[in-house]
Amino acid sequence: MPTLNINGKDTSVDADSSTPILWALRDTLGMTGTKFGCGAALCGACTVHLDGAAIRSCVTPISAAASKKITTIEAVASDKVGLAVHNAWVAHDVVQCGYCQSGQIMSATALLKANKKPTDADIDAAMAGNICRCGTYARVRSAIHAAASSLA
Predict the structure, then answer these.
(1) How far, in Å, CA of 79 to CA of 72, rounded?
(2) Is the pLDDT of residue 1 over 90?
(3) Greatest CA separation found in the chain?
(4) What CATH number has the domain bearing residue 48?
């Protein structure tokens, strides 16, 4: 039985090592904040952090997470960058239907951890893999700029 470090806690997962992280989180562990969107790493709804990098959990097997740290939307606000992104999302009324937002927030948090003063082009590049059917892209960009400013 593989053991994964999820949100700072070592957790045994009763799943085959080829199981995508997404399904281990949702089906085995009941952590439903990370969403299934496409199953092909094209939409970004399933984004989590693996050692701080934004990855698509729908195509990443749990074997790839051995000896690494997985951070999910359930814990992203436990650090100051994730909390700043969360607060900016609320202040800028980014969420409409909300389905893609966990992935959007995870990607935005990874961006701001890597780049404290992103340009519009930096934001667009980092968020390009996250699809929002509601079209809140302008608000996403504004919220990321606001989060960056609050951290400066």
Answers:
(1) 12
(2) no
(3) 44
(4) 3.10.20.30
